[in-house]
Design a protein that fits this description.
alpha+beta; 16-stranded antiparallel beta barrel; three-stranded antiparallel sheet; 4 helices; 20 strands
């Protein structure tokens, strides 16, 4: 019995040891499991915290990116378009960009209120065939060149249209074919202070011989303060709208009657200077004063000795002229002008102006001439216009001239002094009814009091002209115009003429005033 108990006790002790080891193993496993669970929780917590920090940094960077993008957009909208150049820029390209940016900024300041369209730098867009051809460049200086030719063909019931009908120097002047204007135009930046312009005109006379003239050559300032601009050289006076325009800008093939009567065949252009001031008004307002030498055939109504009468005597208005020298400022030619432009609506623009020209003439020692003018221009173009079409424009200009004709220099046959007064106007309407097609009509009228030598002066007497025209533009570099003239004058009766004019352009002229 004791032996059995001892055996059972030994077995019991072994069982207790096994239970103890099992309990220890279980407890160790539970402890290890608890430790592992705690570490996993810590790892998860750390991972979550890192994720939150990453999200905060990402949001902050995204906000910075959005702020910078918004600022860049604002700067892009307020500044000029970016200069499109190659990704890798040379030092010379960077220098040119800086110089062009400076020049454009000056132009923008000077012409802030002007209606003229602002043009981009040649580097700001790919080259186009409609841009002027740049043939020379040195730093900020450059020169553009272009060539424009006007050729006429037609017929008139008057055998010599140039005698009394077509009195302008660029008008078609004979039956058949004529070429009265082939123009070489140069323009460019001289330096940061001036731009330069020149127009050299070649013409074929009725004998097909070539005449050449330096029509315009002048400097124009680009950086004067107080909205001032200075112009100096030989150029067309800013009298009205028609006089400063070159023939390729005309909507009709010939000059208005009153323009040739007041300013002569060449228009009013001379050597001198002009100061313009852009007034600080809500709308465009420009006041200018031109001061010219006032001598020669391009100052027709002023110090102009006229033409040889065949006997070696120069005459104007029938009087032997005196070749007056410049004695002082009183002998200069002054041409003031005031012009304003208004946006009537989003689709309509109105431009108006008043002009004057005052100076001496060569028919006497104290003879003087006064010319006054008023002009108005209106244009309508819808907001959805395609290539500038459709449009309707209306232009009217009136001119009055008082020519103080002296007694002349002919002592053998003295004549009385008299005031020759002339007045007239033209009005034209143009309708661009579809892209590249324009039709229009112009009415001209001129009259004046009779003078002592009225019978021999083609620029006097009452006359009127009605001129319908149809123009087609094959491209921006060419045009074809068909015009009919119904002319009536007290000196020649009634005459009819039909003219076809062809224009072609190589290169491109700089932008003209609106």
């Amino acid at each position: 019995m004791r032996k059995f108990e001892a055996v059972n006790l030994e077995k019991f002790m072994k069982i207790l040891k096994i239970i103890g080891w099992s309990s220890a193993l279980c407890l160790s496993a539970m402890t290890l499991q608890a430790q592992e669970t705690n570490e996993v929780g810590q790892f998860k917590k750390q991972l979550q915290q890192m994720q939150e920090n990453f999200d905060k940094v990402t949001r902050a960077q995204q906000q910075q990116i959005e702020a910078l993008t918004k600022k860049l957009d604002e700067l892009t909208r307020t500044q000029l378009p970016p200069i499109a150049v190659a990704p890798v820029k040379t030092e010379e390209q960077k220098k040119l960009e800086a110089e062009l940016a400076t020049e454009l900024a000056k132009d923008s300041t000077t012409n802030a209120a002007s209606k003229s369209a602002t043009q981009s730098s040649p580097l700001s867009a790919p080259w186009s065939a409609s841009q002027p051809l740049t043939i020379a460049r040195a730093g900020s200086a450059y020169m553009n060149i272009s060539f424009d030719a006007l050729m006429d063909a037609g017929w008139s019931t008057e055998s010599d249209p140039s005698a009394q009908l077509q009195l302008g120097d660029h008008d078609p002047q004979k039956r058949g074919f004529s070429l009265r204007n082939a123009e070489i135009a140069l323009d460019g930046a001289v330096d940061p202070y001036f731009k330069g312009f020149a127009n050299i005109v070649l013409k074929l006379d009725n004998n097909n011989e070539t005449d050449i003239e330096l029509e315009e050559t002048y400097l124009q300032s680009t950086s004067l303060p107080a909205n001032l601009q200075l112009k100096a050289g030989q150029f067309f006076s800013a009298f009205g709208r028609n006089n400063p325009q070159h023939p390729h800008q005309w909507a009709f093939v010939d000059a208005p009657i009153i323009s040739t009567r007041a300013f002569g065949p060449d228009g009013l252009r001379n050597i001198g200077t002009q100061l313009s001031w852009l007034a600080p008004t809500p709308f465009f307002t420009e006041l200018s004063l031109g001061i010219f030498d006032g001598q020669g055939g391009t100052a027709h109504s002023f110090r102009n000795v006229g033409e040889d009468d065949g006997t070696g005597v120069n005459r104007f208005a029938g009087r032997a002229t005196i070749d007056r020298n410049l004695r002082g400022p009183q002998d200069l030619l002054f041409t003031p002008r005031l012009a304003s432009s208004f946006e009537v609506t989003d689709t309509q623009t109105l431009v108006g102006g008043l002009s004057g020209a005052f100076g001496p003439n060569d028919t006497g020692l104290h003879s003087r001439t006064e010319i006054y003018g008023a002009d108005v221009y209106w244009k309508w173009k819808p907001a959805n216009a395609t290539e500038g079409f459709p449009f309707v424009s209306w232009q009217t200009e009136g001119i009055y001239r008082r020519f103080g004709a002296g007694s002349g220099a002919d002592l053998m046959e003295p004549v009385q002094s008299e005031n020759l007064r002339d007045w007239g106007a033209f009005s034209q309407v143009l309708w661009g009814f579809k892209p590249r097609w324009v039709t229009g009509i112009r009415g001209d009228y001129a009259s004046g009091n009779s003078g002592q030598f009225d019978s021999s002066d083609a620029f006097r007497g009452e006359r009127y002209r009605i001129s319908p025209v149809l123009t087609f533009f094959p491209s921006e570099f060419s045009k074809v115009s068909l015009q009919y003239n119904h002319d009536h004058g007290e000196k020649f009766g009634t005459e009819h003429s039909v003219w076809i004019q062809l224009e072609f352009l190589l290169g491109a002229h700089g932008a003209h005033k609106f």
